[in-house]
């Protein structure tokens, strides 16, 4: 369990740093586009690049947010339940969500492979964009891994003396 948590933490930190780099690129591109359009025409393909980078930033942030329990949780009703029922709901929730995102990652990979095999290019810049689709699939997979880790934490609770 500790190994899985360490791997999860390492992967999420790497994706967060990568997503942060993409976000900085988005900020710089936006500022450059705003500045340049005052004197000349806007930077070609900004809308495309912002869309692809935004997808990467979002997908890469999902797992880290789950790992750090940063998602919004409305548990007003669940807090009133007895402890065994709360545990069951948590197991069920993490299990279903983990399965959902593993399946989602698989389907997004299939979509990326279809785009790759078809030789799809973006409309304005004519760049290949299946790598961005693979990145979104990887982000979904890492989220599923974080949810699965949370699932195991609830199913296999650690002893009090061990952290």
Describe the secondary-structure layout.
Blueprint: H1 2-37, H2 46-67, H3 83-118, H4 130-155
Helix pairs in contact: 1-2, 1-4, 2-4, 3-4
Number of DSSP strand runs: 0
Counting helices, strands and paired strands, the structural category is: mainly alpha
Helix content: over 70%
Percent range for β-strand residues: under 5%
Beginning-to-end CA distance, first to last residue: 11 Å
The backbone outline, from C-alpha atoms, is elongated
* Strand/helix succession: HHHH
List the uncertain runs. Answer: none
Q: Could you report the average pLDDT, rounded to the nearest whole number?
A: 90
Into how many domains do the coordinates divide? 1
Rg (C-alpha, Å): 20 Å
Structure write-up:
- This protein has 163 residues and is mainly alpha-helical.
- Helices cover 74% and strands 0% of the residues.
- It has one domain (2-155).
- The chain is built from four helices and no strands.
- Helix 2 packs parallel to helix 4 (130-155) and helix 3 (83-118) runs antiparallel to helix 4 (130-155).
Brief overview, please?
With 163 residues, the chain is mostly helical. It is 74% helix and 0% strand.
Defining traits:
elongated; single chain; mainly alpha; 163 residues
């Amino acid at each position: 369990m500790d190994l899985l948590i360490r791997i999860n933490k390492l992967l999420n930190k790497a994706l967060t740093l990568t997503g942060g780099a993409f976000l900085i690129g988005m900020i710089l591109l936006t500022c450059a586009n705003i500045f340049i359009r005052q004197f000349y025409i806007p930077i070609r393909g900004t809308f495309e690049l912002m869309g692809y980078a935004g997808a990467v930033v979002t997908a890469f942030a999902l797992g880290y947010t789950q790992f750090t329990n940063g998602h919004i949780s409305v548990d007003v009703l669940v807090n009133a339940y007895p402890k065994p029922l709360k545990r069951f709901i948590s197991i069920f929730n993490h299990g279903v969500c983990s399965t959902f995102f593993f399946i989602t990652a698989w389907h997004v990979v299939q979509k990326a492979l279809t785009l790759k095999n078809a030789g799809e290019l973006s409309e304005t810049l004519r760049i290949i964009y299946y790598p961005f689709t693979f990145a979104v699939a990887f982000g979904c997979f890492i989220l599923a891994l974080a949810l699965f880790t949370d699932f195991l934490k609830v199913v296999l609770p650690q002893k009090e003396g061990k952290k």
